[in-house]
Write a structure and sequence with these properties.
Elements: E1 2-7, E2 31-32, H1 34-41, H2 46-53, E3 65-66, H3 85-89, H4 97-101, E4 104-108, E5 112-117, H5 122-131, E6 138-143, H6 148-152, H7 156-172, H8 178-196, H9 203-211, H10 213-225, H11 233-249, H12 263-269, H13 275-314, H14 326-351, H15 356-372, H16 375-382
Parallel strand pairs: 1-5
Antiparallel strand pairs: 1-6, 2-3, 4-5
Helix pairs in contact: 5-15, 7-9, 8-14, 11-13, 11-14, 12-13, 13-14, 14-15
Length: 400
């Protein structure tokens, strides 16, 4: 039996076209698959054929070819009305698969399927997060039957399915702060990765954890309140400096960051990678957290929970990691959430409020930079100690 999770917004989604505040034709390096290149090459109109092929530079190793990007980083086929010239003259079969499918995201295994959509699309963000405040963004249906052999087989996929069920249960426990739940998820995976190095894991063991979730989260919440689980200022300061660095390397628009003369950015920029400097960053951050937390809790707690749910699924975590490595995927997810959180802290501290329209723009900006750049993956290659998520998972207690 396959559980099918379909993003409810997709039922009525329509591209905003020229009315969209952004354009999905900007900033991406779109690959044109060989079959489409062949289709272009067989267009009878030589002028039309040459016009299409002129946008293709040298081939990649897999024979796909990226569309050339002019200096403004817009697709060469983008009209002045922000519409696709190819679609205006032909149909969708003449555009690359990426363009045809965007913003849809499909994650599929034998036992579960997610029909989701990218939060880098402003219209999807509006519909999922701002148009209707819904508790569960997905419609759940079932299809087919699972054979007894599939039920009994213990594989990487069945383990990931059990993990996916566990995360869904954690995210439903709204009694506990979202940051605590993200801390629990990351610390669970830290222990999980260490455990699988030594012995095999059976899905029933993960299911048993799911049965004890409320008790585990209650104990974790109590430990945080009693300071038995606490954020280490030096570790946290180093972590948030890395997150600020990612904001820069991901080319997050400067209007979404605070002025460089303000305390947190000053503490980060003037830090000389010393223990004292890192602690100063986190101590400075505490004032930002105090300003931001009441605003988030009052206005946007449910929205950010929904955002996190969709964000995890769009990245294939943990059901079908895009890079096939679950531990790297969870770290990438937590870094992405932390980027949004840092920018939220900066905005609320600077303005003492967070407008809904600005938050919508901020989410789209962060998501677009995730989609368009590999800076997080590059950051992890250069700082692979960050894959040891257990060292800094307490930092996530402060999230949202």
């Amino acid at each position: 039996m396959t559980d099918i999770y379909t993003l409810k917004a997709l039922e009525t989604f329509q591209c905003a076209g020229s009315n969209c505040p952004r354009t999905c034709c900007s900033g991406w390096q779109i690959e044109v698959e060989p079959a489409l290149i062949d289709k272009w090459q067989h267009i009878s109109d030589s002028e039309e054929r040459d016009w299409l092929l002129s946008a293709l530079p040298a081939k990649n190793d897999d024979n796909s070819q990226p569309l050339m990007k002019p200096e403004d980083l817009n697709c060469p086929f983008l009209s002045t009305d922000k519409l696709c010239k190819i679609q205006m003259q032909h149909d969708q079969t003449f555009i690359p698969t990426t363009c045809r499918e965007y913003p849809r995201v499909n994650i599929k295994t034998k036992n579960r399927q997610y029909n989701s959509a990218s939060l880098s699309c402003p219209e999807i963000v509006r519909m999922v997060l701002f148009d209707k405040k819904i508790d569960n963004p997905y419609q759940i249906t079932q299809s087919g039957e699972t054979s007894s052999s599939e039920q009994q087989a213990i594989s990487h996929e069945t383990i990931n399915l059990a993990l996916d069920k566990l995360i869904n249960k954690v995210m439903k426990l709204d009694k506990f702060p979202l940051g605590l739940r993200l801390f629990y998820i990351s610390s669970f995976f830290s222990d999980f990765f260490e455990h699988v190095k030594q012995t095999e894991i059976h899905p029933s063991q993960i299911d048993q954890v799911g049965k004890q979730l409320k008790e585990n989260l209650y104990a974790a919440n109590l430990a945080v309140k009693q300071n038995q689980i606490a954020v280490d200022p030096v570790t946290a300061g180093s972590y948030w400096k890395s997150i600020y660095s990612l904001c820069i390397t991901q080319n997050i628009d400067s209007r979404f960051r605070e002025d460089e003369t303000l305390p947190l950015t000053q503490a980060i920029l003037n830090n000389e990678d010393s223990h004292e400097g890192y602690a100063n960053i986190y101590n400075t951050l505490q004032d930002y957290i105090k300003h931001c937390r009441p605003v988030i809790k009052k206005q946007y707690q449910q929205l950010l929970k929904t955002y996190t749910q969709v964000y995890f699924k769009n990245n294939g975590f943990p059901l079908l990691p895009r890079n096939k490595t679950t531990n790297i995927t969870i770290v990438q997810c937590m870094l992405g959430l932390s980027i949004l959180q840092l920018l939220l802290w900066m905005q609320v501290k600077q303005k003492n409020k967070l407008d809904e329209s600005f938050l919508q723009e901020l989410i789209v900006e962060v998501e677009r930079q995730h989609a368009h750049h590999d800076s997080i993956a590059q950051h992890l290659e250069e700082n692979n100690h960050m894959l040891q998520i257990g060292q800094y998972c307490t930092c996530f207690i402060d999230l949202f």
